[in-house]
Amino acid sequence: MPVRDWLIGLSQNAKKIIGEDIKTVEFGWPIGMPVSRPLGGRLYEVRSDLEDKTISRVIFTIYKSNMVLLHGFIKKDQKTPKSDLDTAKRRLRKFSQKGGKK
Hints:
alpha+beta, four-stranded antiparallel sheet, 3 helices, 39% helix
């Protein structure tokens, strides 16, 4: 539930934009730029442009045709921060070890 917890703290408008982008990826999969991009290692990102030129990313994986949201964050630099990528990788490993069970 980490992505849900992160989303709760965002503005209503940001939640709406991110939710729409997640829905676009989920129901249009496979989909590419500008909404989604592969990060490698079974990881992908949902790319959302929010108000005031703020950018958010939700990192996810695909498991048995399902979109599994692993990590969400507000992007401050051009490159995805290593710490955010590491968090998503750690959650993917944990998810995979449980056999995909939440």
